[in-house]
Amino acid sequence: MRKRERENPCGVCGHYHKYEEGEVCGICGHRIPATIEKSGLQTSAFPSEILPEFLYLGSYDNASRAELLKTQGISRVLNTVPACQNLYKNSFTYHCLQEEKTLPFDDAILFLEQCEKDKARVLVHCMSGKSRSPAIVIAYLMKCKGWRLAQSYQWVKDRRPSVELSSAVYQQLEEYERNTFGSFESSPIPAFFPASQTQPFGFGFPKVDNTAPAPAFNNTASIFDRAAINIPPQEFTFGATNNEMKISSNPFGFTANGNDTPMDSS
What we know:
Layout: H1 3-6, H2 34-39, E1 48-51, E2 55-58, H3 60-63, H4 66-71, E3 74-79, E4 93-96, H5 105-117, E5 121-125, H6 132-145, H7 149-159, H8 167-181
Helix pairs in contact: 5-6, 6-7, 6-8
């Protein structure tokens, strides 16, 4: 087996097989899911750059690609999932969070602050790079950049669109914002998890009472309800004010007495 293949095990099972090419693992039988194989969808092999030349966000698959991390200059890894193995301890400096149910934001931020002081590029990852690791990065932006939760979340989401925070993780971020700024900044519920009850968005306009009676308009009768004007066709004249007057020059070719005259064809 070549060196490159030995340094890039499967990001899911941890064994060495050509996962992207559909090869079945000879140890555990793992292979690429049929739904992904048919659709041809593949995630990026590179992590997302959150802060230039410093902070990167990704998945366990990204963390398993040692050569690609080195090409980006990443030398440290913050592992947010205790069950994920730290694969390359001889090549990278690892820091692994030990809590599963709650995210130890302060512990993670201390490590990231040290990386920033040392001017070292660091990768923050979880299994899929969608919830736990983005939450750590968002908490770091709130603490070190002074940004509120909504702004920090949008910054990360713009740079990694696949982010989908769970409701439990988002609640932890709300609590962290209260502890950091002394209050929680009310903002629209993000679209990363469904809300059970939400109020309709009204752009600040007063609520319309649908039970109020419709306004009454002028009861003037319609022009279509008036009695028809009975004028014989032969007596009808365009623009005439006097029935006795004859129109000597009429562009339509009509006269007051009803006789037609030829229209000018020039």
